[in-house]
Amino acid sequence: MKILVPVKRVIDYNVKPRVKSDGSGVDLANVKMSMNPFDEISVEEAIRLKEAGKAEEIVAVSVGPQKAQETLRTALAMGADRAILVQTDEEVEPLGVAKILAKIVEEEAPKLVITGKQAIDDDSNQTGQMLAALLGWGQGTFANTVSVDGDSVEVKREIDGGLQTVKLNLPAVVTTDLRLNEPRYASLPNIMKAKKKPLDEKTPADYGVDISPRLTTTNVSEPPVRQAGEKVEDVDALVAKLKAVGAI
Amino acid sequence: MKTLVLVEHDNTDMKDATLAVVTAASQLGEVHALVVGSGCASVGEQAAKVAGVSTVHVADDAALANQLAENVAPLVASLMDSHDAFLAPATTTGKNIAPRVAALLDVMQISDILSVESEDTFTRPIYAGNAIATVKSSDAKKVITVRGTAFDKAAAEGGSASIEGVTGAGESGLSSFVSEEIAKSERPELTSAKIIVSGGRALGSSEKFEEVITPLADKLGAGIGASRAAVDAGYVPNDYQVGQTGKIVAPEVYIAIGISGAIQHLAGMKDSKTIVAINKDEDAPIFQVADIGLVADLFNAVPELTEKV
Q1: Is residue B92 part of a domain?
Q2: Using CB atoms within 10 A as the burial measure, which of A106, B15, B168, B286 is most buried?
Q3: Are A59 and A5 in contact (CB under 8 A)?
Q4: Which of residues 269-308 of B touch A (CB under 8 A)?
Q5: B137-169 confidence digits (pLDDT tens)
């Protein structure tokens, strides 16, 4: 079986995003960019399925700027077999990404699509569910455990208050949550090898998908700033303070 | 504008998360509620009592018992012929279903809204709340998830909505429910806890974490969280993690113990109403966001606090 793994290039999770003073967005110039952490988990899960003999080929896909090539190379260095970059400098919304992915699924015919539950930049948490809807496939969102068995996959999902297990007929879409696995680091030899793995370049137009945005961001602002409060001398003063604000 | 609110429930009781969504929907227009489940008539009756709801649609069908998105989304999409906006709570149920509805309607969803600015304009957090975006939707129908902590809860009593039955499309044949493990712990779940006691790397070991953090949480009836550093060090499992890649929480009181306050952690808890920090490093960044700070050795201060609260 073939697994398709969509990945996104985002601001590194250790970098504090700075809002531009004109309110037009977040400043991404000279900021460290990395693979979306949830997508790293997706790549790792696909590799583990391949290592377990459940999958033969892993295709990583990214919709984004030319530099998203680096993110795809990371996926290849981790263990993906080949990559597709759908290059665009436009910001593509989850609905547009899902439409492009649906076209790629038509061409590639994977049995499983594994992608992060959300990207840590726009925090939408939509692409996987939208892709499943467009394809008429089942969806296993927020996966904690993925077990492929013949023509179906069991997905243990992280839900509020606990875990839910669903069984999906293949083909299906799985979105990954934090506890699914711990992604590996690419070794230096694998990073070198990844440079030789195939990476196709396409554009949204190649797939005939209209990616014009439906949402307009009219302003991006800093969240209300928290004022540092006061320091108290000892535990008694802390207890008194907590009582004063009605906390206890 | 006619809105349709997805009621969060377990086939027996309506969950509070619904009430904040009703408030958000009422800022857009007329509020209809949708109860999707099996043997869920009592939930329909509870939803009909919520102030501001005019009609409750109840889809009661064995195929909908576990609210699988594959079965629920086509039903919602068909109801959107006669509604202008679909609003779901930003719970795992809402987040699972709403995007599937949006794609069926060819609409770009607006996730996790914090406020309704007008009929088509909303604010929502991006970058884990490090920035707030104002977005305007050009879609004819709106599909929205609502952050529960950002809206007041509508009154659960006082309404008298009419109840109508609706029929779902049955089993999609794409997925099936296998099982569910709902944590039965007495301890409140992180995302709904009123008080959270959170521990960091400074605790030094899982034994110390248990010994210092748990008694205070027990005494306060609090949920227990942890920083990524504490999770990475193996003191507690991953699901304790509060932060950008963990859980985003906004309790009434957040007590950060031995947590320095990395950006990634602050992103997950800075919307808490009152933040208390206990740390022996007086320059720790956590003090810049704390309402009440205590510079002290946590191994002395926390047991003392546990005794005195």
Answers
A1: yes
A2: B286
A3: yes
A4: 270-271, 274-276, 278, 282, 287-296, 301, 304-305, 308
A5: 999 999 999 998 889 999 999 999 999 999 988
Interface check for A108 against chain B (CB to CB < 8 A): the answer is no
Same domain, B23 and B94: yes
Domain annotation for chain A: domains and CATH numbers: 2-218 (3.40.50.620)
Whether residues B249 and B282 fall in one domain: yes
- CA-based nearest residue to B60, from B202, B154, B167: B167
Within this chain, do residues B20 and B145 fall inside the same structural domain, yes or no? yes
Which of B104, B127, B293 lies at the smallest CB-CB distance from A231? B293
Distance from CA of A106 to the nearest CA of B (A): 17
Residue A28, min C-alpha distance to chain B (Å):
12
Question: Where do we find the tokens 């013949």?
Answer: A150
Residue A123 contacts B, CB cutoff 8 Å? yes
User: Residue B14: which CATH number?
Assistant: 3.40.50.620
Residue B278 lies in a domain: yes
Residues B114 and B211 in one domain: no
Distance from CA of B49 to the nearest CA of A (A): 25
Total domains in the fold of chain B: 2
Which ranges in chain B belong to alpha helices (H)? 17-26, 41-48, 69-79, 92-105, 206-220, 228-232, 263-269, 298-308
**What stretches of chain B adopt beta strand conformation (E)?**
2-6, 30-37, 53-60, 85-89, 110-113, 115-116, 121-126, 131-137, 142-146, 162-165, 175-182, 195-199, 223-226, 253-257, 274-279, 292-295
Q: Are residues B158 and B246 in the same domain?
A: no
Least confident interval from B139-143, B210-214, B242-246: B242-246
- Looking at CA atoms only, how far is residue A51 from chain B in angstroms? 24
Mean pLDDT of B112-138: 96
* pTM, rounded to two decimals: 0.91
- Tens-place pLDDT, residues A143-157: 999 999 999 999 999
Residue where a domain stops, chosen among B148, B165, B182: B165
CATH number, domain containing residue B244: 3.40.50.1220
In a domain, B171, yes or no: no
CB contact under 8 A, B102 and A130: yes
- For residue B241, the 8-state DSSP code is B
Closest residue in A to B189 (Cα–Cα): A161
Query: Considering CB atoms only, which of B69, B139, B191 is closest to A129?
Result: B69
Residue B80 belongs to some domain of the structure: yes
pLDDT of A60 reads 98
Whether the Cβ atoms of residue B212 and residue B203 lie closer than 8 Å to each other: yes
Cis bond leading into A183, ω under 30°? Answer: no
pLDDT classification of B258: cutoffs 50, 70, 90: very high
- Counting every residue, how long is chain B? 309
Residues B126 and B28 in one domain: yes
Mean of pLDDT over chain B: 95
Residues of B in contact with A137 (CB under 8 A): 174
B158 and B221 co-located in one domain: no
Q: Are residues B223 and B145 in the same domain?
A: no
User: Which candidate from B137, B241, B275 shows the least CB-CB separation from A214?
Assistant: B137
* Residues A133, B96: C-beta atoms closer than 8 Å: no
Q: A230 contacts in B (CB within 8 Å)? A: 291-293
Question: d(Cα B272, Cα B269) in Å, to the nearest integer?
Answer: 6
